[in-house]
UniProtKB/TrEMBL annotation:
Compartments, as annotated in UniProt: Cell inner membrane
Membrane topology field: Multi-pass membrane protein
Top-rank taxon: Bacteria
Protein's UniProt name: Diacylglycerol kinase
Lineage of origin: Bacteria, Pseudomonadati, Pseudomonadota, Gammaproteobacteria, Alteromonadales
Biological source species: Shewanella woodyi (strain ATCC 51908 / MS32)
Length: 123
């Protein structure tokens, strides 16, 4: 049920609270999310100190966030599918596989961009 006074700055604060709750849940229950956060935290300093242009730096950081965003969406799809039922259904498996493929594509994009930008600079 939606709260009656859910507008303006109050709505922004409530939405931020829900977002923080979601991040905490992902951290607590999703090993892949924790691994990708740790990887992003290790890679972020490289992006910040590398001798590259501002646009290249932005691309490196952006791809780290894309991976985390897609992983959160994947976790949400998995939670909804698991909530519906534990019996195997072809569409449930398909939804989970497609969400997993999205994570794979985001990781691939990240790897390609990091390799092209840093490889061109340092190799």
């Amino acid at each position: 049920m939606k709260p009656e006074n859910n507008h303006g700055i109050k709505r922004v604060f409530r939405a931020t609270g829900f977002s923080m709750k979601g991040l905490k849940a992902a951290w607590a229950h999703e090993a892949a999310f924790r691994q990708e956060v740790v990887l992003a935290l290790l890679m972020l300093p490289i992006a910040l100190v590398a001798d590259i242009t501002t646009i290249e730096r932005l691309l490196l950081v952006l791809t780290l966030f894309i991976v985390l965003i897609v992983e959160l969406l994947n976790s949400a799809v998995e939670a909804v599918v698991d909530r519906i039922g534990s019996e195997h259904h072809q569409l449930s498996g398909q939804a989970k596989d497609i969400a997993s493929a999205a994570v794979f594509m985001s990781l691939t994009l990240c790897a390609i961009i990091w390799t092209v930008i840093l490889g061109a600079r340092y190799l």
